[in-house]
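Give me the fold.
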Amino acid sequence: MLLQYSKNNLPFNDPSTFAELKWDGIRLIVSNLDELNLYTKNTNATAKYPELHNPPIPKGTILDGEIVVLDEQGKADFEATNAGFRSSKKRKPVVFMAFDILYHRGVDVTALPLEVRKGLLEEAVQENENYRIVRPIQGSTTDFFKLICQHGLEGIVIKKKSSKYEKDTRSWSWQKVINYQMAECFITGYSKKEHSWLLGYPDGVRIRTVGAMQLGITPSARQSMWPVFQAYKSGESKEHVYVQPLVRCKVKYRDWYKSGAMRLPVFEEFIV
């Protein structure tokens, strides 16, 4: 079951839905049928996460959720989660946040309404330090999203209570609303291969490089920038062409990496 973006990335109140916290981690399927297997999108990750090897669930259970590394405040640290997935060296332990159940007592329950599956999830999972349940909030979805933003969390997912679980399908029954941050950046060049734009962020008297942006750039925006790239070229490397920082743009992004780079910057518009 894959997520759609809500219209204009805005939360909404609808009595036929409920909202959950969107944990900022890596999607994982926990399959405890005849034997335990842990699956990411493209990998059997069972050997990578020994802390998940004794799941507090009965045989015949399959769960869907996210693995996260939690920081001292109990927030998901995506950078640590991703680093641990890529390398086992000095990996921090993960917590599995279960938000759905696909098999219960050996029976496929994906055709049942979500609110029924949520009850089965509560029945199946005995929470411990490595396995937790993601529960829907009671009350206003829009107020919940405001609270999420105030605490600097990733976002929410709005789900239809009656929704079936649709495997490998991007469904409007589950819609995500992301707590994007906004910034004004200079366009300082472009990548020769990826056709992404290099971004510079004003930091006092200097412009600090904060990564490359590929998402959200429309054909018309590319066409507008091409004369600038040609006229104001300031340097070149094997991978990049650099230009004088003359053009500013508005960018939305998830958060900052510890390296100082923006995570998933998305072009919004030029600043004239």
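The longest strand covers residues 240-253.
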